[in-house]
Each structure stands twice: as C-alpha cells, then as structure tokens.
Amino acid sequence: RFILLQIKTNRGRASTKLGKGKNLTRADKKILKALGKKIKSVNKDLENFRFGKAAHKLYDFFWHDFCDVYIERAKIRKDKKNTQKILLYVLLNSLKLLHPFIPFITEEIYQKLPIKNKKRSLMIEEWPK
Predict the structure, then answer these.
(1) Cβ-count burial of 34 within 10 angstroms (0-12 exposed, 13-18 middle, 19+ buried)?
(2) How high is the pLDDT of residue 37?
(3) Share of the chain above pLDDT 90, in %
(4) 66, exposed or middle or buried, with CB in 10 Å at 0-12, 13-18, 19+?
C-alpha cells in the first residue's frame, strides 16, 4: 500500500525502467545490488530443485532488506522520483520471483500496480535474470 501511494503516474501508468544510475543514493545501490544477487541465487536454487532454500532467501530479502530497511528509508527520502522508480522496480521483480511460491497473492498485487506495458498476468511476465 505504501508503494502504491508513493507512485506518481504519468497518464495513469508508471515506468518500471531504471535510468543509468544517476542520483542513486547508497541505499538505492545497496537494494539494487541485493536484488541482483538474490535473483542469481534464487535462479540457481530453482534450477537445482532447492525450493525451500529459494523460498527462504526470497522471504529474507523481501521482508528484511526491502520492507524493513529500504521502505523505511524511503519514507524519509527527499528525492522521491528515483525512490518511486526503485520501489516499483524492486517490488515488481520480487513479485516475479515470489510468484511460483504464492501465486494468488502475487497476482492480486500485480493487478493493482499501475505500470506501463503491463501484461494480462504476472505469470507471462519475463523472468528476472
């Protein structure tokens, strides 16, 4: 809900594309780096059929790194434009990664996101690499 309230849309849709890294704070870089590492790690676990390990890693990233740390810092940030994009980007990629484990919840959240070029379903979105 916090992220949905923060997103300022352009004609009803927000962009999920990040720029070239200009004006990123240390917290921005840290969450993007953590997301990249988590994507690689979870993909490897899924390929090796370690579903429990992948689920635990996603839970840890989403609740601790993203919600507890980054969103709390985003609440007091002054540069809202970059923060909005990063919040939406990390949320969307987290939903994609979590979808095999909790499909009904992730699909419901995905349908509420006002993003450009949104597919009919989260299930047909491109998997994070």
Answers:
(1) middle
(2) 97
(3) 63
(4) buried
Instruction: Give dist(CA 26, CA 23) in Å, integer.
Output: 10
* pTM exceeding 0.85: yes
Q: What secondary structure does DSSP assign to 11-52, as a single string?
A: TTBB-----SSTT--HHHHHHHHHHHHHHHHHHHHHHTT-HH
CB 110 within 8 A of CB 91: no
Residue 8, SS3? Answer: coil
Q: Are 14 and 116 in contact (CB under 8 A)?
A: yes
Cβ pair 31, 70 in contact under 8 A: yes
Q: Give the other-Cβ count within 10 Å of 68's Cβ.
A: 11
pLDDT higher than 70, residue 9: no
